[in-house]
Model the fold of this input.
Amino acid sequence: MSTASVAVVGLGVVGSRVARQLTSSGIPVLVHDTRADLQNVTARALKATGIIDLADLRPETSPLVVLATPAGQSEMARLLVELGLHVVCTSDDVDDIEIQLALDELARSRGVGVVVGAAASPGLSGLLVAELAMRVDELDEIHVGVHGTGGPACARQHHRALAGVAPGWHDREWINRPGGSGRELLWFPEPIGGRDCYRAELADPITLHRAFPSATRISARMSATRRDRLTARLPMMSPPHAEGGLGGVRVEIRGSKNGARRTEVAGVAERTGIISGAVAAATAAAMLASEKTPVGVSVLGDGRLNNTALLDDVIRRGITVFEYAGSGA
Amino acid sequence: MKMLRRAIAALTLTGLVAGVLRIRGKGGVPPERGGWRELTRPRS
Done:
């Protein structure tokens, strides 16, 4: 697939960055957005080709599509899989991701790969867990923290998440807790620092359980202020910014090494759109370059993917990953 | 009318209690040792 092009659908904060990252890697890009003006401007700026109808895509010339539209990507993902195209999805919506994970049988029957949740959280979170998991013999617990949002659609999604039902994997059972509960102070890399984080309707437990089924506890929390929590069940009080400020992803794993308990923590502090763009672009570039793209649905962190190489590429694309050291844990 | 006033008072009180319960809490304890450093990756 090495000389083929990648189609990027949705040219918002994440999609435009994916397209830019791919073109800077020398990969030909096709761009599509329902906003014709935006599509034309982006295509001109990146010397990419605009596409009118996704049904025109052909596996021989553009075998891979990155979906960077707001939540609700599953129907488009299904159509693309039926066309015989590989798909990278960036949605972090729980319902969306559950539907995408259910595309496994269809993707296998078409001989294509679908990577679900290739963004910041989920996405980078899975790559960080895979990296940290190599430091322990047994992985017991995974806890994810996320701070900040990407574009306006992402901000609305996070607003809803705080009022939703938070899935969690607890002692090998799925539990549902109210969003906005379970306050925990989580320490993100500087300059974010300590943030109060709460359970929310986040997809990380679902994707991480798929990638790391041996873990007995998986949770995800997002940062929120008191005002966020009080207004979570109301419409957003003010329109979201075009792009959120500095965001962060933090993962903590607990396990054992040589019989001793170990806790490992890693994280990043960067604009969420930049993180998501780098992760999705790295995933797409790897799939395009690989002769053996895993068929069926996979998530980042999944043993079928070369997670080390993916994280290497994400770092090469400018995302600095930190680890917490010296706590004695 | 009296019933309506009681209902409004009850709802207001419930809202206030729920609000206090929602924003109370002391957060947590910041780490006292260690710090962030760039990820070390022996294989890269």
